[in-house]
Amino acid sequence: xxxxxxxxxxxxxxxxxxxxxxxxxxxxxxxxxxxxxxxxxxxxxxxxxxxxxxxxxxxxxxxxxxxxxxxxxxxxxxxxxxxxxxxxxxxxxxxxxxxxxxxxxxxxxxxxxxxxxxxxxxxxxxxxxxxxxxxxxxxxxxxxxxxxxxxxxxxxxxxxxxxxxxxxxxxxxxxxxxxxxxxxxxxxxxxxxxxxxxxxxxxxxxxxxxxxxxxxxxxxxxxxxxxxxxxxxxxxxxxxxxxxxxxxxxxxxxxxxxxxxxxxxxxxxxxxxxxxxxxxxxxxxxxxxxxxxxxxxxxxxxxxxxxxxxxxxxxxxxxxxxxxxxxxxxxxxxxxxxxxxxxxxxxxxxxxxxxxxxxxxxxxxxxxxxxxxxxxxxxxxxxxxxxxxxxxxxxxxxxxxxxxxxxxxxxxxxxxxxxxxxxxxxxxxxxxxxxxxxxxxxxxxxxxxxxxxxxxxxxxxxxxxxxxxxxxxxxxxxxxxxxxxxxxxxxxxxxxxxxxxxxxxxxxxxxxxxxxxxxxxxxxxxxxxxxxxxxxxxxxxxxxxxxxxxxxxxxxxxxxxxxxxxxxxxxxxxxxxxxxxxxxxxxxxxxxxxxxxxxxxxxxxxxxxxxxxxxxxxxxxxxxxxxxxxxxxxxxxxxxxxxxxxxxxxxxxxxxxxxxxxxxxxxxxxxxxxxxxxxxxxxxxxxxxxxxxxxxxxxxxxxxxxxxxxxxxxxxxxxxxxxxxxxxxxxxxxxxxxxxxxxxxxxxxxxxxxxxxxxxxxxxxxxxxxxxxxxxxxxxxxxxxxxxxxxxxxxxxxxxxxxxxxxxxxxxxxxxxxxxxxxxxxxxxxxxxxxxxxxxxxxxxxxxxxxxxxxxxxxxxxxxxxxxxxxxxxxxxxxxxxxxxxxxxxxxxxxxxxxxxxxxxxxxxxxxxxxxxxxxxxxxxxxxxxxxxxxxxxxxxxxxxxxxxxxxxxxxxxxxxxxxxxxxxxxxxxxxxxxxxxxxxxxxxxxxxxxxxxxxxxxxxxxxxxxxxxxxxxxxxxxxxxxxxxxxxxxxxxxxxxxxxxxxxxxxxxxxxxxxxxxxxxxxxxxxxxxxxxxxxxxxxxxxxxxxxxxxxxxxxxxxxxxxxxxxxxxxxxxxxxxxxxxxxxxxxxxxxxxxxxxxxxxxxxxxxxxxxxxxxxxxxxxxxxxxxxxxxxxxxxxxxxxxxxxxxxxxxxxxxxxxxxxxxxxxxxxxxxxxxxxxxxxxxxxxxxxxxxxxx
Length: 1241
Fold this sequence. Notes:
By secondary structure, the protein is α+β, with helices and mostly antiparallel strands. 33% of the residues lie in helices and 22% in strands. It contains 42 helices and 35 strands. The strands form five sheets. The chain has a 17-stranded mixed beta sheet that branches. Strands 9, 10, 11, 12, 13, 14, 15, 16 and 17 form a nine-stranded mixed beta sheet that branches. The chain has a five-stranded mixed beta sheet with strand order 31-32-34-33-35. Strand 29 (858-859) and strand 30 form a beta hairpin. Helix 34 (1022-1032) crosses helix 37. The chain is globular, with a radius of gyration of 35 Å.
């Protein structure tokens, strides 16, 4: 026992406890441990906190006093914990660090013999407990009470842990992930320039009041006025506070409140009248006048059910304000009002408080609850308000006080019985808000009734008390739709919304989302979001969408609604990722094109909103580690738009004049529109002939193409009644589609002259003077950032341009000589120019054809009479059945027309599957091969298809003179090079089998590997070795070494399954593995799994083999299935280290679940929480633990070690005739890991 030197002492503080996981403690190097302690010291010094306890692998810090302003001690420690987690989670470290934060009592005693203090108390013990049981590594773990104490960081997104870990003293906790942004909104005074007064105030304040000083002020002058009166304007726009622009609008433009000056200090005053206008019918029953609904010009109806409310301007009595309101809305003269109405009750309330929405300004709220009676409903003149029969009636009002809309509102009024449910709900909610210091006087017009409808009728939100604070709670499902585009993970995000010609970019980079209705599960809301947001029916959802249930997380975010000032809104967000099939052509796949989805908001023909979407690389959305600074808040370098010039476009033609309506209703509109149009073949052939001439400039080429191809005018569409161009199926403007087509033509021009000025123009674009010469890093115009110039120069010097030339040579466009390119084929080049000019015309929805029953009963899935909505299929239909409709195509020689038509076939080809050896040859090449065989295409046609793919993607950005920005600025060079290198192999599909082409490619990749590996292997396991080295992408040596060290049983699984072809009667020539039947397996994200775990290659191969073994258990070999391929998704594993896969909580397992007859998915499941979902007829237990690798056969073991948290050793259950199912494991007897369930693991 140690002797106490003094009595225990106590203080309040916020503690942060950190600790390393046992696995990290076992392997961390001393230098890394020192670096961690230095990081802790640095962050503690930055935040001004003290270390009170420290050990080699754990520590305790305390914050006793918060900084000034909105920052609390909890803000400080949560942020400090996040900075430590960022350090630990960075790619070059991956340290298993866990952090807990808690605020409470901190006590200590002085330990004399140790000459130190020992700390204990609620803050200390709970912080350590939270650290110990954190749900995952590199997160800050807190309790709800701690989250409630956040101020500066209260809007950060926290994950919700609703299932408490074993040993926890609580039911719910929160954890903060390392890369969540910690930022505060900045004031945006610029928005005031577009804000206007919503209504003209009927009564102006009296002269001589403070109003006269501020009435003519601009936003900067108003800001200076506030600063002069010691108001800290930097606090506006943060947290619950209005922005300065919003406050300016409230005071100066809308006059919803006013300012008073008392003893040199400003005070804000809001005065509101809530009015019950009551009339009694002949039966003695009272009725109250209510605003029932509002209807805008487009026919959209918004239910109101609200009483009259009047804002009282400065210097005006409430009586005058009410009379003015009655005159403006109902056209009731003041003398009639005096004779007809009498005040029965006047309940007045005045209170002064500090409003969260206006920091630093005391706010005085004056509320008049007025009951006014109609003395004689039959009085002449009251017919305007529906009396004496108590009829419903309408009024007109220009503008809308809620949304600044200039449309005229039609307002519908009714006389409702006094004491109705709606009125009672409104009064109850009004009282509830007032009782919790939320003043309805600050709400927007109609906001109170919107809240009533939301809470009591639609029941999509609830009001809850947390502590003494009233909060509004809503649930949202947020859906990240993912697709691998050219083997690069992309996510679907919004770019803008269009409505009535206005473009809203506030939704930029947001995924699709939808509010949950009352009683709705997140799974139901997910399906509804995919239907409503992306226009997918249930059939397409089932065919195209795979839900990654392992990605599910429940998060919580806090916002302060501008419609309900003072009422904090808490969003519970169900976040989920779905994988979209690349067959979803209506969603811009497989190439990742932008698209738009229209949505009708009301029956009105004009009331349609268009949401525009794009596919964005996942790393551009989530991988932002390098942008963060070590500070209290995340700060990002702001780019000054003045430093760069706007992107440039070429002149576009006008929309086509509208033909007679009868022609527009024909099944082939394009044929009618193009009647009489002719191709200028002299200009077209001049472009094809001179494209490689030194003196044939880009400007000359552009002028020739525009003059030659009349189809280019189709991109601007047929003019509407307003003379404007129509919308497109991509969601882009018609001009965008025109610019993109010109960009693709320029890509053809530049790639045909790489050895002249093409490469430089491809990277930097062309100038606007003279003949549009190639730009460079030293070009003065256009102004570009140094970073952009560097990236353009890096592409120019880094890419292997000969790869592009080889593709064009293979297509027959360029002709090679002994010293490189010596010329070109004019006919072949002309065919490519024609294809490029027409390839996207069907994105103009007016031109989409309908299938003619007289020509065919069905075309690519579209039946007779149906409009072909897929633009590629639509063009293919025109080329097949109405080729003369497009004069440029019709004028080509037959051989060139066939090559163009071949490019419009749906190849269902995923290049990423080839360059990563992810798929067997059947899934990869079957459709491509069948189209080549059916059309008798030769290798040149295949190369022609790839050339078009290249130039189309190169010109995807709608700024043709800026160069091929899609490749130069937005595409990984390594991936592009891989695709270019793969093209020569694929074109041999016309002469070789799918498996031969695949084997040739694998052999070539082996020979080209760095470091060199000699000749490709032969014999048993040859294909497995070659595929694994390609899948490893740069880590081939580690995986080959690991493969050779694996137990024979494990290699047997890999050798057999990776050599499956998925093609009846086809096998690899160089592999001795014999495995008759099928199906073959495509392990989706298998390459990602190996690349993530290259440091533990043996462990990764064990995992891959176990997944394949259990997949074969679900799909036993069958001779009749040799032509089939099953997709096995390992999404849940691809981002995890082997250590992370094995860190399971008690009761958790990994399982392989057969979802459909052609797909399965790896899932982490709980035997406790998911017991009802465990169906072992369609599931197999994945056993990732085994006996030590001693060179002999692996022996069967339980998963008890995983369930109890011990570190397992790699291995695999022995392969036998029948896989061990969980049901069969029960015969082994029970162990401590079974938790009393019906079977033992």
